[in-house]
Design goal:
Length: 340
Amino acid sequence: MKISKLGLKLAYTALACAIILTFECAEAQAFRNVKNGDKTPSFKAMAAEGGGSVEYAPPTEEVIVLSFIRQGQDKSNELVRDLARLDPALKGKVQVLAIVVNPKDGDAAAWAKGLGAEFPVLLDDNEKNYGMFGIVVAPETAVIAPDGTLKSSYSGYTSSIKISIEEEAKKILGIAIDEKADKGAQVNISPERKKAIRELQQARMQIKRKQKSKAIPMVKKAIEADKTYTEAYMLLGDLTLEENGPLEEAEAAYKKIMEIEPSNSLGKVGLARVKAKKGGYEEASAELEKIAMVSPDGGKMYYYLGMMHENAGKMDKAAVAYRKALEKILEQVETAEEKQ
């Protein structure tokens, strides 16, 4: 039976919607077994360096920041960097424990040290802790009071997570929070980065109002303020492509990301999208297919591949890519459930 173009359009649109909903459900279900206000379970995990094991059993003398991370993953890289430079005022009062959920994918201790970590890095070889806490998508972080009560938890990674963790820990410890922090200033972040974050927040407000053209100058101001802010370069590249701006500008933004973070998979996706726009569609889609196959976040990579096929008018290929994206995401969720 021959399927019409309209039928294909409806098919891959439905798949895309399902993908988005699945992303939202997976995020909502992360850290499912322990909620804010619950007592956290005791656990033991193998140390990544030096052998032996580390045991957590409340009550403790310090506030515990417990983070489940995936070595080699961009978001986990950023999170480890942030956890390695928490406010010095918390030194001796907060203990970070990082549990690597993919210990067989390399030297976890060396990876974490390379990001500045001096806190214990643990291995979840038998996935017992992963399942006990109900982790679906890493990274996932919890701030735990000395009595063992889960006070707050954070899914994924954002540029504001460090200040959120610091403020929660200070609240538990009864340490006064700087008035500037109350107004959104971020402790231990350079003035340049603070300004860049404010500009990017304003840009995202314009995007929500469907004023993307007004957002672009704000993103550029963020880059002017901090030329190492990869989130700003990513948004500039994406907005430039979406608004049919100069391809050279989008390409320069994505190249800057790769210069700052060579392993950033989203930067590679952006460069592939630019290549497709320049007429190298076949080569670009092949590159993106390779990225999707090896990426720990393959679901999103196939989603971007589907978008590329869709923009090129390749509806049949778009449907296949969106279907693969959905399969990857569902597979990830099912695997997590089996570990419980």
